[in-house]
Structure formats: C-alpha cells, structure tokens
Automatic annotation (TrEMBL):
This is PIG-L family deacetylase. Gene3D superfamilies: LmbE-like (3.40.50.10320). GO terms for molecular function: hydrolase activity, acting on carbon-nitrogen (but not peptide) bonds, in linear amides. The keyword Disulfide bond does not apply. Keywords: Zinc. InterPro entries: GlcNAc_PI_deacetylase-related (IPR003737), LmbE-like_dom_sf (IPR024078). The lineage of its organism: Bacteria, Bacillati, Actinomycetota, Actinomycetes, Geodermatophilales. It comes from the Bacteria. GO terms for biological process: glycoside metabolic process. The keyword Transferase does not apply.
Amino acid sequence: MTAPADRRPVEHVERALCVLAHPDDVDFGSAGTVATWTAAGTEVVYCIVTDGDAGGFDETPRAEMPRLRQAEQRAAAAAVGVSDVRFLGYPDGRLELTLDLRRDISRVIRQVRPQRVLTSSPERMYDRIGASHPDHMTVGESTLRAVYPDARNPFAHPELLDQEGLDAWTVDEVWLGASPRADHAVDVTDVVERKFAALMSHVTQVSHQPDGQLREFVTGWMRQTARTHGLPDDRLAEAFHVVFTS
C-alpha cells in the first residue's frame, strides 16, 4: 500500500476523516494540520473511538468523564473549523482489534466518504513511548483494515449495505500520525494559535500543568519536527507517514 518515495499527497481534498482513540489525540498531533485543511475548504469529520473515561488528573467522578470529554472535544474541534464530531463509545484503555471495531469504523468511512483518512500509526515508536498507547495502535490498525479491505468491499460487513444502505467507498490516502517512518510534514506555523486553542479546550487533561508548560513543550516538539523535515528554523510542523491505497 505504500507509494514510491517521490509521491506526494494531493494538495486539496473535498472530505477528510480523522479516526483517533481518545478525545484530545487529534489535537496534540494533528490540530494544526486539520486547521490548514478546513481553511482551504476541506470538510473534516472526527471519529473518536473511546469514551475517554480513563483520562484526567483530578477527582472528577469516572461516570462524569465521558460527558466532559465529549464537550471538550467538540469545543476543540470548533477551534479548528470542525463541526461534525462522532463518538463510538468504546471503553478507554481496553480497545482490542475486533471485527466489530473494524465494522464500526467502516460504517463511518462509508457515511462520510472521505478521500483522506487521518489516524494513528499502528507501529510502536520506541523512542517516544507515550505516543504508542495501546489504544492508539489498535485504532490505527483497525482503521487501516477498515480502509483496506473493508470499506471498499461491498461484501465485507454485508449489514452495512443490506440493512443500512451504505455503499462501498475507497479511501485514496491514509495519514498516520506518531509514526516512526514519517515522510510528510505540514507547516502549521500560521495556524498554531488555533491548535493551542484546541488543546486548551481539553481542561480535564491539561489544566494540571503549569501555565506555559504545555505550550513550551508542544512548540519545541513542532519546531524539532520542522527541522527534521527540512523546514526553516522559525517554522513549526506536524508530521505523518502518508500511505496511498492504489
């Protein structure tokens, strides 16, 4: 499925779907990129697989956490121009690679009919273990299996077509975040304030950090990403491994 090294993503797509494990995953790794897409007129949809109930750093009752994190994710999405946010409601921290999960992601792909899907890498990043949460890798692998072969095969998960009327759909590009083999960087310098607005919407996840610490850490991370991919020293970037499906 990987394209030749000199192949590049298309400049613009009509629709993109981001499939991530937890509320806030898309914002830490990809909110700047999403902001560039929506600014260019791409319709972006978020699909968040878990309910986020295992997150947080205070005494908030666990039963309240899914509701809070859904509201935070919707606010974060709005900050980068996304209004369609869907939650699959799987338990946080307990994801497994199952046919049910593949089917549920395939359903969203067939509903949204995106040319591009963004998700997490299914490969473990050993030099930055925090990026390789088991839920992240499970969602990445499940999404890749949903892209190929499930969503494009009318005979896979036949209930999607026979009972729900969802025709098969082929996704052209998959962008994998937190990948040990990232080969494409997006300059997000000009939209970085929108990214930070999205991140700060996740109050239950970031409010425990001292003022400025999160911004300093994420800025340094994006600056190093830009340098690694050959951008000037004053630029900030997010990086992905782009996989082409044909």
